[in-house]
Amino acid sequence: MSERDNLPVGTFSSWLLRTQAAQGTRNGTDVPCGDCTACCTSSYFIHITPEETETLAMIPKALLFPAPGLPDGHVLMGYDEKGHCPMLTENQCSIYEHRPQTCRNYDCRVFPAAGLSVGKEGKVRIDEQARRWKFSFPAPLDREQHEAVQSAAAFLGERAELFPEGTVPSNATQLAVLAIRVHEVFLDSEGKTHRDVVDAVMKVLDLTAE
To answer: What crossing angle do the helices spanning 140-158 and 12-23 adopt, rounded to 10°?
Structure first.
């Protein structure tokens, strides 16, 4: 990949702050996707909650089915034989103003931030796009936070058995988002035992370790 193919994100600390703020709102993230539709063409099942009435009204009921393991009213939208979202028309989202919250929250920059890849067949385009994003690190805090997010992702992925079942997702996207949420635990983890780290993570998540 040449230098001209890179996509500048800006300072890591600024991006992290915006991403954390976006996780607590319904506005979603502001990703400069350009003409990239990698996430729309990578065989994703899209979760839609019963509260997303405007979104549900825009999607034919035949394209929706109950979301396994979730309460009644939660549904998934599948993809076509090519792995494309059925709402993608002429390489554009046909319901963009009413797109699902899942789509609003999606940001492939979480993968280079957390040092993860999607790592699954059918999602190669997402990994290719994610590798193009380039953060800048003008201050020590930028490096420290980046290392903390990557340390969090590594610890959560490698030590999932230390947490109550269901705490650590196997899905790479959800794991990266979780690492961002709890990264502050790993800014100062030197000298802490695994139990100390687990307890600190659970406190951030407002859960109780078993």
So the answer is: 50
